[in-house]
Amino acid sequence: MTTIDAPRSGSGRPRRGINWEKYGWIYMRASGVVLLVLIFGHLFVNLVAGEGVKAIDFAFVAGKLADPFWIIWDTLLLWLALIHGANGMRTIVNDYANNPTVRRVLLGAIFASTAVLLLLGTLVIYTFDPCPANATADLLPSFCPVP
Asked: What are the chain's domains?
């Protein structure tokens, strides 16, 4: 009879410290449920309510980002989705990258790209101004007051 050892069973000693895998697993389940609500709410407002997809233009986005409710909604959607995806990629790398150096490089790339995208996305959401000051009138959307 052949016995197969448990994969990556370690030394048999209990590990000390924070169990990041457990908290990553819990995060994936909790964020998945919240993301379902956020995504379907986003799709309903953008595609079903009002005039549907033909109404989505610069003015529609500007109107949504003028409302604090939608700013918070979009920020939650951005952060939860990016971290959820990055955590999923981290799990895949941990499962399939056997070389420790390759694993470190891949995890570093995932972390760096997630941090950059979170920073840039949050900056866009909170600094979006459809009617910037000192802009020429021909570059402004039609709903902006002419300076």
From this structure: 26-130 (1.20.1300.10)
